[in-house]
Design goal:
- The protein has 355 residues and is of the alpha/beta class.
- The strands form two sheets. It has a five-stranded mixed β-sheet with strand order 3-2-1-4-5.
- α4 crosses α10 and α5 crosses α6.
Length: 355
């Protein structure tokens, strides 16, 4: 892909799960260092809508997206001070995600692109997360190892440059985000589980209980978290009064969190060392977890590995990351037709290259 030196301005739309988001990003499509400037980034969360259900209800999410998409887009364009005719394209998350939620965003994106005569770009949600660290002041260079950790994905990639990826490892069962949510439910904590469990773990002793840290084969990079959830459930069942003691609950939350993040740290650092790439990027919602950040910072510093995170506000789902990924795809000559459809199960294997 050749770089385009003139800046492009892209409207991004994200509706893959329970955040309705629109953003306007401007950047020069430099594939060696594609840093983007966020002109506006608006997110409407559905947290309160789903909290009482303990998880996202797909039909409610879709209806909420339909209500919020146009107001969110208008707000983003207004904040950016950009007219629709000044856009170079409209990028939208095409998958993976909840089918109905994705379709809501795609339908609106098609309408905007058609109305203003601009290209439509379908974006893979995880490539959006992969680009989120480029939306900041900190310079970022290729190649790097990427740990993508979210509610639906746990992936370890070799990123040679934009669009050139090799899958190193993934979770064989639950994603780490799912494991956080399920553990939080077992501990009687709130929703969403990740932040609730992290808060409950503060001041707890991560060595108070023995929970397995599943590493599978150390020389390989796959993950597994379902057995850890089962171990937590069995421990609670064996000690019926365990959760009635606030201190013991804090210790248990700390132990569970430690057991979740330790394999992420070990395998990410090992990938950097084995492939001789001293640069690690962590993105996705679980990338905001402070325990994960602290452990990675310690290990990376000891091994002289450059460690980069997106801003906390860009770890969770947002449209700025979708806009930047779409911008780079457009600059490479890629766009979608009005036949663009949702891909609720868009396996990363069909998207990345295998080395």
């Amino acid at each position: 892909m050749a770089s385009i030196q003139s800046p492009l301005t892209i409207l991004g739309i994200e509706s893959s799960c329970d955040e309705t988001a629109a953003a306007v990003v401007r950047a020069t499509a430099d594939y060696d260092r594609p840093n983007g400037t966020i002109l506006a980034n608006v997110v409407v969360s559905q947290l309160e809508l789903h909290a009482s259900y303990g998880g996202v209800v797909p039909e409610l999410a879709s209806r909420a997206h339909i209500r919020h998409l146009y107001p969110v887009i208008r707000q983003a364009m207004s904040q950016a001070g950009v007219q629709f005719q000044e856009l170079d394209g409209v990028a939208v998350t095409a998958g993976p995600g909840l089918a109905g939620a994705l379709l809501a965003g795609i339908a609106v994106a098609k309408g905007v692109a058609l109305a203003v005569g601009k290209p439509l770009i379908g974006v893979h949600h995880m490539e959006g997360h992969l680009m989120s660290p480029f939306l900041g002041q900190q310079p970022l260079h290729f190649p790097f190892i990427a740990l993508l950790v979210s509610g639906g994905h746990t992936l370890l990639l070799l990123v040679r440059r934009f669009g050139d990826y090799q899958l190193l490892g993934r979770s064989r069962d639950d994603s780490v985000g799912e494991a956080f949510d399920k553990g939080a439910r077992l501990l009687g904590l709130g929703y969403p589980g990740g932040p609730a469990l992290s808060l409950a773990a503060q001041g707890g002793d991560p060595q108070a209980f023995h929970l397995p840290q599943v590493l599978l084969q150390r020389e390989q990079f796959d993950f597994s978290f379902s057995g850890l959830k089962t171990a937590l459930r069995l421990l609670i069942e064996r000690q019926a009064n365990l959760l009635e003691d606030p201190l013991q609950r804090r210790h248990l939350a700390a132990c569970y969190q430690q057991a979740l993040v330790t394999p992420l740290v070990i395998k990410s650092i090992a990938a950097c060392q084995q492939l001789a790439i001293p640069r690690l990027v962590v993105a996705g919602g679980v990338g905001a977890n402070q325990q994960l950040r602290q452990l990675l910072q310690q290990q990376a510093q000891q091994r002289q590995i450059e460690l980069l995170f997106p801003a906390l506000s860009l770890c969770t789902d947002n449209a700025a990351m979708i806009a930047l990924a779409g911008l780079l795809r457009l600059a490479g000559g890629q766009s979608a037709t009005m036949e663009l459809n949702a891909r609720a199960r868009w396996p990363i294997e069909t998207f990345v290259q295998h080395g």
